[in-house]
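Session log. Operator J.P. requested a structure for one protein chain; no other inputs attached. Running the standard single-chain path with token output.
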Amino acid sequence: MKDGILIGIDAGTSVIKSVAFTTAGEQIAIAAISNVYETLAGGGVEQDMARTWRDTAQALKRLSENIPNLASRLIAISVTGQGDGMWLIDRDGEPVAPAWLWLDARAASIAEEFIRHSDYPAHYKRTGTGINACQMSIHLAWMARHRPEVLARASSAFHCKDWLYFKLTGERAEDPSEANFTLGQYATRTYAPHVLDTLGASDAKRLLPPIVEGTEVAGALSAGAAKLAGLKAGTPITLGYVDVICTGLGGGLFDPLGKTGCTIIGSTGMHMRVAPTAADVKLNAEMSGYTMCFPVPGMYAQMQSNMASTLNIDWLLDMARDLLKSEGVERSRGDLLKGMDEKIMARPAGRVMYHPYISHAGERGPFMEPSARAMFTGLEIGQGFSDLMRGVYEGLCLASRDCYAAMGDIPEEIRVTGGAARSNALRLILASTLKARVRSVAREEAGAAGAAMMAAVQQKLYPDMAACAAQWVDPLLGDSTTPDADLAAIYEKSFSVYKETREKMQPIWRAMMANRREATHAS
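Structure written below.
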């Protein structure tokens, strides 16, 4: 079909997007709806599952209204979404509780407990993935301990994209990426949920849906979902991999030689490299990071993830906005970012050190510490907002190097995607910190594109992912940003201090967290 269309759905934390592409990978239309979640006392972060589905269907409906003859031109839809968390449904397919998101920190103490357990090394070797407070296994354990009646009503445990796939097709399924990195065995791409036994949640094994490979099989759009979306029943629907994998795929991570890395500078920071085979997977002594199946036979993506990336920038911008608002001046984040590259590059490098652990859930890459918190070091009189922001930018890049170093040699080229990748200053600081070429990918919606690429391969529009990537990714790669020798020398020294500081801070963070919990209980 010459005018055929593929749709990638990317249900993120902040926005749900439906993006239409030509079969050659050109983005032609997007419909986006803001996502809503609720923050609760005690670290809970929940999302209304029914609303998430309604918003997804509405986004598809908007595309059908804006693209001529979409229903007849549509070849397939693929869905990806935010990772981790827990989305529980009953036998009738109805939610038994609001979804727990990856931001939820209620089960942090269970994660800390398991990290110290004698079974943890075997779990890490099996999954290639460290435990943290936001994973489904830990959430299920919390539910088994504190809300067993909710778990008893559930019949399937999904992640976000699995819930949407179910609503689109009526089929209960999980993809290999999320099935394996927390409840599976990466080398065999099968479930191995022994961790649930150790965590006292053995009964939750019954909730795990079948694993489906989205580049090989597709479901069909149900009549009910088709009516809501304004599309044809029977349209092929593929279950994409988790959003970080799809974003890596759409952002240029595919590399059969394993010499390319991909950094996603979004709400979280993801730093990935390809392991061409299971034998190429390199596990680290700190037993942290993720090993996920990549949507290519036998290939894996290793990654280390910072719990917060641009959230650190947003935090500092919002502090400035609040101060201005108190004086009657309204400014958006975008307003404050205008000219920011020039302002921060005019300030001295390496003067203010920032550890970007702003998330309530602490940090998970390359070390796992739920009590870790952000901090500035090196502040002195005479420094201002631009110095602080430069410290944040440099902190994000030092955190990136910390993550890549845990996975072996830093790749020769790093491809960056995400909103902050547009910053020339950030790309230069990153290249100089990593001592590697950095290239942005001119793909606005890499996650949706990666999902659509999986559908393109499943529908045999391309013989394999290599051919698809050559058409969808390679033409969109930007010019290389190379390291600045002077900056590289500064950041080489900064990195050793950065790492030593965060290592020595861990007992202090834990003590601070213990004090906070004691104060909370006392009140």
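Operator note: The chain is about 40% helix and 20% strand.
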